[in-house]
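To: structure subgroup
Subject: Chain for Friday's discussion

All,

I'm putting the inputs and outputs inline so they're searchable in the archive.
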Amino acid sequence: MFRSPIPRSRSAVAIVLCALALGAAGPVAAEAPMRLRELPYAGFGAPQPSRVTADGTVYGADMVSGNTLRWLPDAAAAEDLGGGPTFALVNITPLANPDGSTVVANYMREDGKLLVSNPRVYEGIFGWTILSGMDQISSLAMGLSRDGSQVVGYGGDPDLPFKPWQWDADRGQRMLPVPAGMDGGEAWAVADDGRVAAGHVSVLGTDEWGWPTRYLYGARWVDGTIELLEDAGGHTLGQVVACNADCTVLVGGGYGGKPDPHPDRGRAWYWTESEGAVYLDTSGLPAGAMAPYYAMAISADGSVIVGTYTEQVQTPFGIVVVNKPFRWTRGGGAECLIERIAASGYAFGGDGWELVANSVSADGRHVLLNGMDADYALHGAVLTFDRDGLFADGFD
């Protein structure tokens, strides 16, 4: 029997359908017109879209073959780019930078009695090439800089806790430090110049009921030196999921650190050096929205953030927790995208659906949705917003 190279991510955000948010108060922006394009799924066993680029092209994975898929704008079917089998993390991988010039997937191969993962980059007609200078036995790519030059993730010896790493073509793979007392970590985001990487470190403990659980501590690495992220009250932030081009704006969510009750625990946030941690205002979401919330992606100027919030729903089998998508704008706050879709007259995302907003284009116009309907059939769509109706002020 072969062992998995990298167990299903220890990160709460990487569940099969993942987490909300909002931000600084401000004037209500004019509502931007929206269009919906559903992704064609015919012919694929389990397609999972993960990234949308500037022109609306979508990249994702076929969870049966492990191959990378590409949906071009207005195409009748997805292209199969090969590259499998891959270790695909639903809603996260494969990775693609904002213009689609760099696509990275995690190739799985046998190494003795182990299955290990090696990140590979798509070379068009030349196929897939494993990143050079990868020193660890097994590595999983989790983040890609916007210019495509930097890759981050986690990995190491499959018999030991995995550690965060950073890669570029000039320096190869190098491990990022984990504080004493912590036993692992993951890097999810990185700046174009490579100076800043971000993600989380973790320690295995027990919850209030005595069950094993992994506590996550949001972190960034600046020139290789780690900094744990806290809010103004000294409460640990959860995992960093994404950042803008220079990683001056970090976004994330989830429960940070050990249980430490406070009013903002489990909420989504953005973080900057000047403002510190700003929890996103959830007041614009439907009644019943609850933690955990996650900010999943951010536009280049920081004016648009997308993510998920959690809601309890009554079903014939009892109460279940489902995930719903949100879109936040710097000038207008948050909105539930399922409500917005219904108000726009589209038959997508109705009762019993579970959807995640897992990617946004660099200009904030395109938002990618991934999820399933009440019958567990998979669906994906790209929402396109008219930016003329928005306040485009980003972060200074």
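Points worth raising on Friday:
The mean pLDDT is 88.
The CA atoms of residues 115 and 157 lie 12 Å apart.

D.
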